[in-house]
Amino acid sequence: MAVGGARKPWGGRFSERTDAMVEAYTASIDADARMLPHDIAASIAHARMLGRQRIIPKKDADAIVRGLAGILEEYARGEFRLRPELEDVHMNVEARLAEKIGAAAGRLHTARSRNDQVATDVRMYMKDACGRAAAALLALQAALLDLAEANKRVVMPGYTHLQRAQPVLFAHHLLAYVEMFARDHTRFAVARTMADESPLGSGALAGVPYPVDREAVAEALGFAGITANSIDAVADRDFIVDFISAAALAMVHVSRLAEELVLWSSAEFAFIRLPDAFATGSSIMPQKKNPDVAELARGRTGRVAGGLVAALMMLKGLPLAYNRDLQEDKPALFEAEDTLLSTLEVLAAMLPRIEVDAQQGKRAAAANYSLATDLADYLVRKGLPFREAHEAVGRVVRYAEDRGLPLSRVPLDVLRKHAPLFDDDALAIDIASSLRSRDVPGGTAPRRVAAALRAARKRIDALSAPGRGRPRKRAAKR
Ligand code: ARG
């Protein structure tokens, strides 16, 4: 990068120009350029307040505001050229402002430091990012509901230890993910609250020696309030950790879903077929159709978890107040956001297009003695203590397994030998009765699942309603 030799705002104290290597090493412009709109909005609010409070001449404040608005237009038109030798977005904007309006630009940085400025910008950016993450999580939940509703009656084996355990509705399994992503949605709301205080007025670290109106600036920028301690305000990046933590956990949830999609689409499970548009082939094996989207979603979880560790380590042992280490907050934040949003988006597009093999689900749900618990519960309803029922059915399973029989083919007299309480109604136990019997709130009984689907849809629609973040992109029904 050809940098070096730019005139610095701190030039007064320095006898040498900054080494080009140092400029390249310390620059953050590649990362923080995306905060330019926030930086300008914060500067406009600050300049207006300076004018109102007579801290700078009114006409200079007006010129600054006009100049900044002009820079924002240049940026929107793609005409604003960022200069890496100017280190970061704040100094790029200020330098351009000086080109546009001359000496008055030099008054913008009155009663402000880059320390409270960058803390303000990144909080504003992160609040927006929380809204984007929340909207993407709602869209993914809606996609899961679309898939569940399109396959309302499909059963599959529920697993523990990845061993077939008890039959469940496919929709019930998907609703488990809806719950996870609903909690993630809440976590981003909490993270947003953590970022929702304005640091402006904290200056470099001690506050500023001017009669600033901190509350007015906070209000103009849409903050709920102002930070309480100037040292903390410039040193705090907890809110970044909160965001990346929420993103990492959401990605962990995504990776569990992705792993199941990989398993389900394999010949071994064969529960689902992925849409061709969301799968890839092999360059050597003509028959292959690979679940690469799910694999990469699973694989990219590590990036975000890594960013979380990076952010925690950035803060660990850092003395108060501002240290340049804190500049590392942005790459971690932005990478977490980008990875999360792109992953949620592609999954939300893919899920409603998945084809589910109901026959295969049913075959698998019925196999491997998955109704054994139901037989034991049958005996319990007839009065046997559960432990004894478990033992008796265990012996029945052993008998059946030795002869290669399903439970439904074990003769009644054999059942009676192991537990005299068995009657011929025991032979009526099947997947449907098993599902129906789990009729508790949160259970897999079809009427409970239908109610859970309705409740989830209602909650998601309410949260996605206009005025509550961006409207949800309703996935196309098949
Ligand atoms: N680019 C810097 C950051 O992201 C801005 C603040 C610089 N402040 C300073 N005292 N050098 O943290």
Quick summary:
The protein is 58% helix and 4% strand.
Task: Explain the overall architecture.
The chain is mostly helical. It has three domains: about 20-110, Fumarase C, Chain B, domain 1; about 115-160 and about 170-355, Fumarase/aspartase (Central domain) (Fumarase C, Chain A, domain 2, Up-down Bundle); about 370-430, Fumarase/aspartase (C-terminal domain) (Ribonucleotide Reductase Protein R1, domain 1), CATH 1.10.40. The protein has 18 helices and six strands. It has helices spanning about 20-25, 30, 35-50, 60-75, 90-100, 115-150, 170-195, 215-220, 230-235, 240-265, 290-315, 330-350, 360-365, 370-380, 385-405, 410-420, 430-435, 445-465, and strands at about 155-160, 165-170, 195-200, 225, 270-275, 355. The protein has a two-stranded antiparallel ribbon with strand order 1-2. α3 (about 35-50) crosses α6 and α3 (about 35-50) packs across α8. It is elongated and about 100 Å long. Mean pLDDT is about 95; it is low at about 470-478. Bound molecules: arginine. Arginine binds next to α6.
